[in-house]
Design brief:
The chain is of the alpha+beta class. It has three helices and four strands; from the N terminus they run βαβαββα. Pfam families: Glutaredoxin.
Length: 79
């Protein structure tokens, strides 16, 4: 099954780097959206999740907030 994983991040966020490194180590392909460079995406993210912080990771429609490897793996295995 092909998973759809999107990481919403900013350039200066160390936890965003940790999430992306975790996904790479697990060989999980993902798309990155830098909300620091795209204000429209930032506004959409806040509207969708009610959260302003990053990283936020969407795994097949489930949101995982912050650096939460267990949450990401759980979301991958429940879809």
């Amino acid at each position: 099954m092909q998973h759809k994983v999107t990481v919403y991040s900013t350039t200066t966020c160390p936890y965003c780097v940790m999430v992306k490194n975790f996904l790479k180590q697990q060989n999980i392909p993902f798309t990155e959206v830098n909300v620091g460079l795209n204000q429209e995406e930032a506004a959409n993210l806040v509207r969708t999740t009610g959260q302003m912080g990053v990283p936020q990771t969407n795994v097949n429609g489930q949101w995982v907030l912050g650096f939460d490897p267990d949450g990401i793996l759980k979301a991958l295995h429940t879809n």
